[in-house]
Amino acid sequence: MYFLLVYMYIKNHVYMFPDLLGCHGKCRRYLFCCFQDRAGQFFSSGHTNNWAVLVCTSRFWFNYRHVANTLSVYRSVKRLGIPDSHIVLMLADDMACNHRNPKPATVFSHKNMELNVYGDDVEVDYRGYEVTVENFLRILTGRLPPSTPRSKRLLSDDRSNILIYLTGHGGNGFLKFQDSEEISNVELADAFEQMWQKRRYNELLFIIDTCQGASMYERFYSPNLMALASSQVGEDSLSHQPDLAIGVHLMDRYTFYLLEFLEDIHPASKTNMNDLFKVCPKSQCVSTPGHRTDLFLRDPGSVLITDFFGSVRKVELTMETINLTDPIDAESGELQKEMHTYADQLPVSEIIHQKPKQKDWHPPDGFILGLWTLILLVFFQTYGVKHLKHIF
Amino acid sequence: MAAPLTLLLLVAVTVRAALFRSSLSELISERVEVVSPLTAWKRVIEGLALLDLGVSPYSGDVFHETPLTIYLFHFLVDYAEVTFMVSVAGSSVVVTYLILFQFRKQKFALEADRYPLDCLELIRSPKEMYYIPLKVAMFYLLNPFTILSCVAKSTCGLNNAIIALFILSTIKGNVLLSAIFLSLATYQSIYPLTLCAPALLYLMQRQYIPVNFRRASFWWFIVQYAFMYLGSLFVIICLSFFLLGSWDYLPSVYGFILSVPDLTPNIGLFWYFFAEMFEHFRLFFLCVFQINVFFYTIPLSIKLKEHPVFLIFMQLAVISIFKSYPTVGDISLYMAFLPVWSHLHRFLRNIFLVSCVLLACSALFPVLWHLWIYAGSANSNFYYAITLLFNVAQILLVSDYFYAFLRREHHLTYGLYLKRKDGSEATLVLK
């Protein structure tokens, strides 16, 4: 018997497989003990699915570049295999359909309009005023109201690798959402801790492209977090070149060079995180990008870019038959015939058949008596009988 | 006098009945110029319905009528239209008769020799005065404002009737009835309190008590009148307490009138100002606005102490303009009295302007309301501008009549054609 080890790139069929991979955890362990050395490399990352949460927190036309940043990363992760169902895209403003956009339905990331990152198939999950701190934290922790659709949820599990990308305007310890509220680094760290305790991620890569972005990952304390930021505390992240036809800056420097870097990645690339840390040195970025790996259990050199940015699924074809153990006896479902009765809470029949007697209000008798006595008194006082002839 | 009056009444009743039966009655009863939160018929029905359900009608900010009105309408709610028509007809009849009595009293022949010779043309002759009561009745009955107010079944008609009865009893010299009707009028809305002063002045004049602060008889009369007035007011308030068994009509009626919580637009000045008022200034400006109504009583009564009837007219006008929830029904009351002073027309200076502005504003009210509320192309400033203009025109009218009245008095004392010391013609300037 021989095994055919095949790397299969499942672009759009991921939803068929989760069940398969989940219940074959047992299977995996069988294969592992048989082929430990090759399997070690095979299952080194420990994740089975990839998610991405891409957030642009800025409103208004002059923050075009933040939307372009987010959409560039969106485009990259989609190209590398993460499907829309596993991407939560939050854009606080609509640049493509903005009145001031001279090229409607497009968002460009490079001047001379080389790359339209809006494309034909962008799926924005949270738009406009829905991009709030509360919604962001609810997505991360999973505490959404039951009516929230699946596309707006982060349905990750303990075998998910999540990429979180934030961009916008920030400061030392906070990130501004839509010009009206802020999220602090403490809140973010606590949210990640909640995710860890609820087993909502396997490994998490956090990228932030704002001014003083490194302050946002200072407070992380949960395991398996790796963070990258475009600037240190006290530095501003700067934008790349403006486009004179559109009239605004199109991208931020860090994300621009990140995009350039990601354009060279394809699903089979072996580039690892150490290369990512070298993206946008100070000479190109003006600010100093930072990263944090102390909470990450693996060595960053062994982490592939595609572990976070792509959805590389490892599937193994086997010709060997495996005997599954006997199925557990299904409980003979005896229908418990208990009589369900409703307690009569609204006695409808009584209401229908009995009209309540309409009680009219009447002024009290004392009042009527008193009033008319007074009126008569006054009348006789003024028109006393003996005076009548003088009046008329 | 009776026959033309009856004819006039018939015409007025026909007009109102026709309007009651037409589809315009709902339209009119919702117009904010005609009904206010105090006087709307819808609210009366609401209050009565609440009462039938066993709840106090003053719960919730719906009903702001006095308990005696509840008592009245409890039995007359099915005949509401007739009630209002009767009240309007009644008040017009009352007003007619009071003018008649007033004129009968006017002993102008005795006073003719007091005046300089060239002033005879200023004094009215019986012939011109003969038709004035009829004109007053006509002004009241056929005034479009009164018709609108009656068709809308606004309780303003009742208030007007009580005030008319009060003026009648004052003119006839009946101190007790005057005090009782005044207390009823004050009980309905607080502002007729200011009519105490002209009533006192008139009654004192009638009883030949000189208006002199040092005289004991002056103060004694004031004490008598005040006792009767306050006593009847007290009795009425206690009676209202017994009607419903609770005191919660006091904040609902009087608290509502004085503190103006409801800022529905109307033709008055309060709503816009208080809509944009900051909370910590509200009390101050409330006091300022309310004092404005009561403020003119003392100066006017000092100036017009020999002419209390004109003072009544002026005071009614001031109340109608400056009260917290004015409607066109209040305006029609004092406008009904204008023919009484038709002899002043030669001294009126702004009559053309005032009449044009009043007509234009009355026409513009519904237009700008529609533009503001329904079309959305105007805003409250437009409507408020017309309100302001309307009130300015009314103030101008009233002050014009005041000027004309004073000027006539001046001419009666000093002659019609004034000459300076050196014999050249002089002009009169109002300072």
UniProtKB/TrEMBL annotation, chain A:
Alphabetically sorted, this entry's keywords are:
GPI-anchor biosynthesis, Membrane, Signal, Transmembrane, Transmembrane helix
A single GO molecular-function term is:
GPI-anchor transamidase activity
Q: Where is the active site?
A: H169, C211
Read off the InterPro entries from this record: GPI_transamidase (IPR028361), Peptidase_C13 (IPR001096)
GO term, biological process aspect, one: GPI anchor biosynthetic process
Q: In which pathway does it act?
A: Glycolipid biosynthesis; glycosylphosphatidylinositol-anchor biosynthesis
Task: Report what the protein is called.
Answer: GPI-anchor transamidase
- Organism of origin: Echeneis naucrates
* Name of the encoding gene: pigk
Automatic annotation (TrEMBL), chain B:
- Kindly tell me the pathway this chain contributes to: Glycolipid biosynthesis; glycosylphosphatidylinositol-anchor biosynthesis
Q: Does the keyword Metal-binding apply?
A: no
Where do the TM regions start and end? 82-101, 139-168, 225-247, 253-274, 281-302, 347-369, 381-403
Pfam families attached to this UniProt entry: PIG-U (PF06728)
A Gene Ontology annotation in the biological process aspect, one of them, is: attachment of GPI anchor to protein
Main subcellular location: endoplasmic reticulum
List the GO cellular component terms: GPI-anchor transamidase complex
Task: Give the signal peptide range.
Answer: 1-17
Q: Which domain of life is it from?
A: Eukaryota
Which keywords has UniProt assigned to this entry?
Endoplasmic reticulum, GPI-anchor biosynthesis, Membrane, Signal, Transmembrane, Transmembrane helix
The listed locations are: Endoplasmic reticulum membrane
Question: How does the record classify its membrane topology?
Answer: Multi-pass membrane protein
Q: Does the keyword Coiled coil apply?
A: no
Instruction: Write out the similarity annotation.
Output: Belongs to the PIGU family.
Could you tell me what this protein is called? Phosphatidylinositol glycan anchor biosynthesis class U protein-like
- UniProt organism field: Echeneis naucrates
